[in-house]
Amino acid sequence: MTLDAVKKLHPREHNEQIAARRAKLDRLKQQGIAPFKHGVTRDTTAAEFQQRYEGQGRDELAASNVEHRMTGRIRAVRMFGKAAFFQLEDGSARYQAFLAKDELGDAFQFCKELLEVGDIILLCGTAMKTKTDELTLRAKQVTLLTKSIRPLPEKFHGLSDVETRYRQRYLDLIVTPKTRETFLLRSRLMQVIRAFFDRHCFMEVETPMLHPIAGGATAKPFKTHHNTLHLDMFLRVAPELYLKRLVVGGFERVFEINRSFRNEGISTQHNPEFTMLEFYAAYCDYHQLMTLIEELLAAICVELKLDAANVTCGEQQISLVPPFARLTMKEAVLQHTNLVNDDLDDTAKLQAWLQRQGVAVDKKLTAAHLLVAVFDNFVEDKLQQPTFITAYPVEVSPLARRSDSDAGAVDRFELFICGRETANGFNELNDYDDQYERFCAQKLQRLAGDEEACEVDLDYVRALEYGLPPTAGAGIGIDRLTMLFTDNPSIRDVILFPQLRHTHES
Questions:
Q1: How far is CA 459 from the centre of its chain?
Q2: Mind listing the pLDDT tens digit for each residue in 83-102?
Q3: Phi, psi of 88 (to 5 degrees)
Q4: 426: buried, middle or exposed (CB in 10 Å: 19+, 13-18, 0-12)?
Q5: What is the DSSP string of 300-347?
Q6: d(CA 273, CA 500)
Q7: 497 CB contacts (<8 Å, ≥6 apart)?
Q8: What are the domain boundaries of the chain?
Q9: How many angstroms separate the CA atoms of 124 and 126, rounded?
Q10: Cα-Cα-Cα-Cα dihedral of 361, 447, 371, 483, to 10°?
């Protein structure tokens, strides 16, 4: 196949606006002006420029002769005959530049004819204030750094198409301030989390993303193949089993901010790859971890300068002031449905109730699985204020320690905020015989067709046989946490490049 044939298979978009900009690109090349420069430095960002001259008057600036080298993408142009105002933006802020023919000479005509919105330029000049007292850079020299051939969306309408925002995140970041603010906050959030766990004497670690056995959570994995080892492998669904191996090895407090992958549906709350915080502490129980999570969320509010008592989540005001409500799963079901206590362990009654609500029921499910189905479908979305749900059934918690007071339940919690699961934690199962039995029970479910059930991980059982100290661990979804603190209803709004259906252009 020839190069031209490949280009026909992958044609680039062309329209009148792109053609007009390409014509200017050709003019630049004909004039010997390089449209894509490198090795360019600046000495002042927009934010630094504003900070330096904040509060200074027009006369003070007129007397100053300090020159600044500033860069930016042109966001708007206003021409006034022999003068122009450019609105520019760099990675720190927006600023204004004043261009005058008297200052620039022949270069002014170049700016007028060949520069346009979207181009990236370097300006050298001094600070001034306009008649309306707007801080402005008076340009004495203008250099084109990068010529843009795609026009930005119209100023007042912005990027209104949601699909385009997700597919072309680079464009979304250029034109949508709220998007940039979301991801700046997300970055800050990660810094706060790391600092919090450092203060609490946790060690940050990294564990494998390629697993020979999919484990650590009940989820359908992505499968791949290692050619050299001739081995089928899985993208991790969770780092849990490796982190607990480290606790066995003597690292008593560990955490990992990890990318995990689950081959499941895509929704406003689910993305096939996502970021999760997992942490494990020896000689702690799950009650202490619930308190630690309350402290973490309170610390985030302080560091992000948010009012913990009034965090906006859609139309709700959420209070993240500890302590949070704590209910067992059965208590929550009784509180939010018309089921009575005697119904909750009765398979037939739960099946009948779910069917009356229009939920399809697998006749092979146990009462425990049906109770969870009731909770998932009819209770979870009602938990708007932060609520820890505890006492999960053993059948749906293959890695959690069995409760001493209720043989059918485990020492586990999930935290729900704004109707979304935000955290999951439990006392770790350190009885190797019990863990082996539960792995085997999960394998039976897998053989019966449950693609999310765990495999038997004999090496993990072997690790437990060396002795896992009393340990509690938890996971927190970073994406959902970001949704909460940025008041975004969809997980796609807090992931830079969310997974989308393929199109001919993707």
A1: 32
A2: 999 999 999 999 999 999 99
A3: -125, 165
A4: buried
A5: HHHHTT--TT-EEETTEEE--PSPPEEEEHHHHHHHHSS--GGGTT-H
A6: 12
A7: 169
A8: 16-152, 175-337+379-493
A9: 7
A10: -100
Report the CATH fold assignment for 16-152.
Answer: OB fold (Dihydrolipoamide Acetyltransferase, E2P) (2.40.50)
Q: Look at residues 124, 147, 35 and name the one whose alpha carbon lies nearest to residue 71.
A: 124
- Tell me how far apart the alpha carbons of residues 336 and 368 are, in angstroms, rounded to a whole number: 18
Burial of 380 (0-12, 13-18, 19+ CB in 10 A): middle
Q: d(Cα 441, Cα 456) in Å, to the nearest integer? A: 9
Note the pTM of the prediction, 2 decimals: 0.92
Q: Which residue has the tokens 């946490």?
A: 481
Q: Cα(444)–Cα(83) distance, rounded to whole angstroms?
A: 78
The CATH class that applies to domain 175-337+379-493 reads alpha beta
- Condensed to tens digits (0 to 9), the pLDDT of residues 298-330 reads 999 999 999 999 999 999 999 999 999 999 999
CA 379 centroid distance within chain: 26
Contact by Cβ (8 Å): 238, 460 = no
Give dist(CA 316, CA 207) in Å, integer.
Answer: 38
Element (H, E) at 281: strand 273-282
Query: Cα separation of 24 and 72, whole Å?
Result: 20
Walk across the sheet containing 412-417 and list its strands: 203-204, 253-261, 273-282, 471-477, 420-427, 412-417, 387-390, 325-328
Residue 291's contacts (CB-CB under 8 Å, 6 or more residues apart) are: 322, 323
**Structure tokens, 150:** 């795609």
